[in-house]
User: Fold this.
Amino acid sequence: MIHIQGIIFDLDGTLVSSSLNFEAIRQEIGCSPTDDILSYLERLPAAEKQAAADIVYRHEMADAESSTWLPHARSFVEQCAENGIPMAIVTRNSATATAVKVKNNAIPIKHIVTREMSSPKPDPAALINVATQFRLPTSALMMVGDYKYDLQAGRNANMATCLVNFEALPYFANLADYTFAHFGLLQSAFFSALQQRRCGFL
Ligand SMILES: [Mg+2]
Assistant:
């Protein structure tokens, strides 16, 4: 972890809570349980697409209004900000819902990529673009998330991958270079590595 100079976070289920009921959304828009909701929306004929998108939007806004920081995430992000660690959020959520979550929780991250702006994870395009803007090689960045798409996107971008927020290791944990059950553990590991680097041990 000593080589990590910047961090990209997933938003929902990583930094802040998400109470999205994907099962209910799928049922309302007619998407099968095995299909990806965003891909399904893309494939719908124009006549049905808007109504389905409106349903997804309604669920996302209700979720955004009730979203709060997940345990220890705020402390970690604030310590990163104090230490000048470049940070970004790459989310599959919409720009509007993301803006509500960022504002309500006073998340101190300016660089935010939502699904309107780039291909959704696991496509690595948004992550690679963040690395370019940070003027860092992708290998110096770490993608932190709670789901396989985050880890797959990180791997696809040649970044370190970090899984957080779990009670038991999920089936896709093999995609993670680091696993921390909560942000408090990531915070200890990351800042002791940073201190080592700054002391010139690298
Ligand atoms: Mg997530």
About this structure: The radius of gyration is 17 Å. Residues 46-65 form the longest helix (20 residues).
